[in-house]
TrEMBL record:
It comes from the Bacteria. It comes from Phytohabitans houttuyneae. InterPro entries: AKG_HExxH. NCBIfam families: mod_HExxH (TIGR04267). This is HEXXH motif domain-containing protein. The lineage of its organism: Bacteria, Bacillati, Actinomycetota, Actinomycetes, Micromonosporales.
């Protein structure tokens, strides 16, 4: 019998009210693990390489899951494994997959076995002169086409014809580990990979940044520590769900003009961003993009809007006309943004900016949510979702703000609508 993931009504209503908590984050992550496993199984069924390699991978994954299911699940459910399997599955379906991309599954299997302390040996491809081990790091090996990756007693070694190299946690000759941002303590401790080496970390509206210098990484860590303190002090319920579901960040190349961030629809637990200017901006970006991630993962489980609806709508955060699903994404993300700016109004040095950003964001959410509610294109579940979100939004609107701040928000909204109408005039 096939088992389907179903969110309990309480978790669904919690997510609809813009938060959801640790339980919802864990439930969404479990569903994503199942999706990854289904996609990996499909790749194995359509495997075009040597049958012995396929059989070795199947045996290794089964042994790892049997020996240490939680440790194996953490690797197989990781976001950059999800990014790889989504990219490759689309390529396979379109008949344009490259063999080395599919063969990356050998590296996934080796890392999974190491996490589960299962011994195995895999043949993996060399890309751009390096072997990539998902979630672990990248080793420069030169011009070899393939390498052997061995898991023994939980330790990984790589041999590309020049003798085995043991993978360690510290940077070494040719070895670039995935570094980790850490902040907080106890139940609100955050631990996020800052992955600047994985070959499948692309797909955002800006290219991924190359390897960060030690000084640049230290700057990220400093900002993250400050941002996490703001979240745990001001919006601890958001810090808790982010800690439970977000696992990695991908630094992006900036354009020199403004900060950028984005979440990929089919990949949960990671998003890309340029380094934020301030800790407050970092805190809001964490909430903003995790809102997108939660909703995208939820849409793998339930249908909230009618996919046949082809109309386009005004979204006050963009000048292009948006489909209903895109409008829903924006409403949900900016509900979290408004809530976070509301909480940051009392932070010294941030108060005035937070007050205006709160007023702007809540007005954007309220007007766009009204568009959703009046569209007639929400499913029954989507209508219930919108009703919970309306209750949350009304609470935001009930917060008093200075009259001048409210007027500036209203004027800004009118100007945005005028620009949108001009850009979309027929």
């Amino acid at each position: 019998m096939t088992a389907y993931h179903r969110l309990p009504a309480t978790l669904l209503s919690g997510l609809a009210a813009s938060t959801g908590g640790r339980g919802a984050s864990r439930a969404l992550a479990e569903a994503q693990l199942s999706k990854h496993l289904l996609l990996i199984a499909n790749l194995l069924r359509r495997w075009s390489g040597p049958a012995a390699d396929r059989d070795r991978i199947v045996h290794a994954l089964e042994a790892a899951r049997a020996a240490a299911s939680a440790e194996a699940a953490r690797v197989l459910g990781s976001p950059l494994v999800g990014a790889w399997v989504a990219i490759v599955s689309r390529a396979v379906a379109q008949g344009r997959a490259e063999r080395d991309d599919v063969a990356h599954l050998g590296a996934v299997a080796a890392v999974t076995c190491a996490a589960a302390r299962v011994d195995t040996e895999m043949t993996v491809p060399v890309r751009d002169g390096a072997v990539a081990l998902p979630g672990v790091g990248r080793l420069a090996v030169g011009e070899a086409r393939h390498a052997r990756v061995t898991s023994a007693g939980g330790t990984l070694t790589v041999d590309a014809g020049r003798g085995p190299v043991t993978v360690t946690g510290a940077a070494d000759d040719g070895w670039q580990p995935v570094r980790t941002l850490v902040a907080g303590s106890g139940t609100v401790r955050a631990k996020l990979a800052l992955d600047d080496v994985d070959p499948y970390r692309h797909g955002y509206h800006a290219p991924p940044a190359p390897r960060l210098s030690a000084a640049e990484f230290a700057h990220w860590q400093e900002l993250f520590t400050e941002a996490w303190h703001l979240l745990t002090e001001r919006v601890p319920y958001r810090a808790a769900e982010i800690a439970a579901g977000l696992r990695a960040l991908v630094p992006l190349q900036g354009d020199g003009r403004s900060a950028r961030s984005a979440t990929i629809r089919h990949v949960f637990g990671v998003f890309g961003l340029t380094r934020p200017a301030t800790a407050a901006d970092f805190a809001v970006t964490l909430v903003h993009e995790y809102q997108h991630a939660k909703l995208s993962a939820l849409l793998d489980l339930v249908q909230l809007s009618d996919p046949a609806d082809e109309r386009r709508y005004f979204a006050p955060w963009r000048t292009d006309a948006r489909p209903l699903a895109g409008l829903l994404q924006g409403v949900y993300a900016f509900a979290g943004v408004a809530d976070t700016w509301r909480a940051l109004r009392g932070v010294p040095g941030v108060t005035d900016a937070a007050e205006q950003e709160f007023a702007n964001a809540r007005l954007q959410v309220a007007q766009s949510l009204a568009t959703l509610e009046g569209s007639g294109a929400l499913t029954p579940v989507g209508a219930r979702f919108a009703a919970h979100l309306r209750h949350f939004t009304d609470a935001l609107l009930a917060e008093p703000v200075p009259t001048a701040v409210a007027r500036r928000a209203e004027q800004r909204q009118r100007q945005l609508h005028e620009r949108w109408r001009a850009a979309n005039a027929t």
